[in-house]
């Protein structure tokens, strides 16, 4: 978990967003999964190698010993038991029963795909239950976001990331962190327009930015597309 925290903190620095930014937003922007997913794939890769060793090799002897322990003392925790549980959780228990597979590459690709699918499914469920993800659910798509490569000027790229992952100072977010108590959502209003100041208002409605908006026709085109979805989700 400590390593995961360091990794996440590095990802947030990379995006130029605040440390309080919701973690699942950050994984999505970078199209990354938990480090434990990579570790699990490496564990299975190593297990496949061990299963293919000749029986007199030390590593294989120890593995077979653990395998027998799993049969005689199923409650004892061993590395072999962890591998068996992992395969079971991925619906790939047949590989354990068969002591390996015919095609390692294909199998590892299947393991990766199952682990990623489980991660993304959990990620989607977290987002759908998150009150902070109303805007984010509109923009998000689990993959490395192309703008991170396309926008080469750091300050612009950071600003875009901050807007997308709600790491900004609009009232909808700053009201959440207001001390000593957070401001109720309905009262997080734009000081200029006296309506809810959220990402939609900032991008498409706030009269304070009318001049800037006129020069960016793409924003006006996107407005119609997002307004229906956004207002339905925000209710
Ligand atoms: Zn406004």
Counting DSSP E segments of at least 2 residues, the number of strands comes to 0
**Radius of gyration, whole Å:** 24 Å
Task: Kindly state the percentage of residues in helix.
Answer: 55-70%
The overall pLDDT, averaged over residues, is 88
Number of helices, where a helix is a run of at least 4 consecutive DSSP H or I residues: 14
Judging from the principal axes of the Cα atoms, what is the shape? elongated
- The first-to-last residue Cα distance is 36 Å
Small ligands present: zinc ion
Helix/strand/pairing class, anyone?
Answer: mainly alpha
Strand content: under 5%
Let me know the largest β-sheet: none
Order of helices and strands: HHHHHHHHHHHHHH
Low-confidence parts lasting 5 or more residues at pLDDT below 50?
Answer: none
Task: Summarize the structure in words.
The protein has 14 helices and no strands. It is mostly helical. Among the domains are: 35-120, no CATH class; 169-235, no CATH class. Helix 1 (2-15) crosses helix 2 and helix 3 (35-51) packs antiparallel against helix 7 (104-128). The chain starts with a helix and ends with a helix. The structure holds zinc ion. Residues 190, 192-193, 197, 201, 206, 208 line the site of zinc ion. Zinc ion binds at residues 190, 192-193, 197, 201, 206, 208.
List keywords for this structure.
235 residues, mainly alpha, elongated, binds zinc ion
Short structural description:
It is built from 14 helices and no strands.
Give a topology summary:
Layout: H1 2-15, H2 23-30, H3 35-51, H4 58-72, H5 79-89, H6 93-97, H7 104-128, H8 136-139, H9 147-150, H10 154-164, H11 171-174, H12 199-205, H13 210-214, H14 217-234
Helix pairs in contact: 1-2, 3-7
The chain binds zinc ion.
